[in-house]
# Entry
Amino acid sequence: MAIDENKLQELMGRMLGDVGAAMGTALVLLGDKFGYYKTLATEGPMTSAELASKTGTVERYVREWAAGQAAAGYINYDAGSGRFSMSPEQALLLADENGPAFFPGMFEIAAAAIRDEPKVANAFQHGGGVGWHEHDACLFRGTERFFRPGYAMHLVSEWIPALDGVREKLERGARVADVGCGHGASVILMAKAFPKSKFFGFDYHQPSIDRARERAREAGVSDRATFERATAKDYPGTYDLVAFFDCLHDMGDPVGAAAHVKSSLARDGTWMLVEPFANERLEDNLNPIGRVFYAASTTICVPGSLSQEVGLGLGTQAGESRLREVLKAGGFTRVRRATATPFNLVLEARP
# Structure
């Protein structure tokens, strides 16, 4: 086959950038761990020696780290002064953990995918899956840190108001189950916004439940936000609102989970299903967001589903039509798209 030199050079350039990004994942984790981004963002321009002194780390390592991050465009370097700095935009993405677009959590997820590659490779070769609990711990921490800003931006102000009559119920006082709650970010946000309601977080992963309890105490909402270990098919209680945030596609038996949601809803109750946004056709998902979602699906979500009973393996890019099929099979007859963002699809389901 004839080689198109221009296409070859273009692909090589793209791969070079990808390798730099992949190796740079470790640098982002180090910058986050030792507070380099936050220090540069709050203290202003610094030499590597000054940054090392401020953070209690070794200058020779900091010098190399800073050079690599400047080459990536994540921080800036002024040759005249020999100092490194961060722009407001860089600080928003890398230093503001409570802001709307904090990214180091996503790098932790990427690191987990790399660290757990041998387990996933074994599943590729021999079948089976890799359970959520079997992944590197940075996946659990990274998931909470990455998704929390998006939930903080959209959940209370946009997603809940888009549901028919739900905000009013929460303001009066309602019972809410958050299934697959992880470290409890979504529960805590709702508990802060609706103090008259009671919130119950469920997850099968006990370390995540323990962390969620800690975070609820720290946030001052443990009086109305409780967390218990349970699966999506056996959590107890009856609720006015059941919420699944970015987790149905990870479940081995999402139809069974949907059936249990139906049985746990109070009369006129609502299921809010938040899933990664996907277009209906594969070719329409071949873009930067789809690339991230397919990678996560290959290394985390599909292996998680295939490790469980049924093992339906929806994947992150199931799409709205496939999700509607699952909900219908679980007994829901009224499903509508409540709202959406470039990253999330929000469905409202009623029996």
The CA atoms of residues 133 and 205 lie 6 Å apart. The first strand starts at residue 76 and ends at 78. The chain is about 50% helix and 15% strand.
